[in-house]
Amino acid sequence: AIGNIGDTTINNGASFDEIRSIIESKNMSPLDREEALRVVDCVELLTENEAPLKRGFLHKFNDVLSKHSWLPSLIGSALIRYFIG
To answer: Which of 7, 12, 14, 31 is most buried as measured by Cβ atoms within 10 A of its Cβ?
Structure first.
């Protein structure tokens, strides 16, 4: 929770558009940026279609996810937002 005197804001996850903005602002190679955006597109498409998320569905993005440790956290945040509704 983030707050100041009398006000509290609870952020239940990042939107996919917010994640894209963060990716665009990061200092990363153009190839990594493209791959990171592809991960976000993939997860967003699966959630929009309410497709079951199977174990290992992000395996093909392992390289970019391991290089940029902040990215899995953001994707997890978007999934939390999706599951909470």
So the answer is: 14
Identify whether the C-beta of residue 23 lies closer than 8 Å to the C-beta of residue 36.
yes
DSSP, res 26: S
Instruction: Check if the beta carbon of residue 10 is closer than 8 Å to that of residue 1.
Output: yes
Distances in whole angstroms, Cα of residue 13 to Cα of each of 29, 31, 53? 26, 26, 18
Contact yes or no for 7/75 (Cβ under 8 A): no
Structure tokens at 66: 């391991």
| Report field, pTM of the whole predicted structure over 0.90 | no
Using DSSP's 3-state secondary structure scheme, residue 4 falls into strand
Q: Which residues of the chain have pLDDT under 50?
A: 1-3, 8-10
Give me the pLDDT at residue 9, please: 44
What residue type is 71 in one-letter code? L
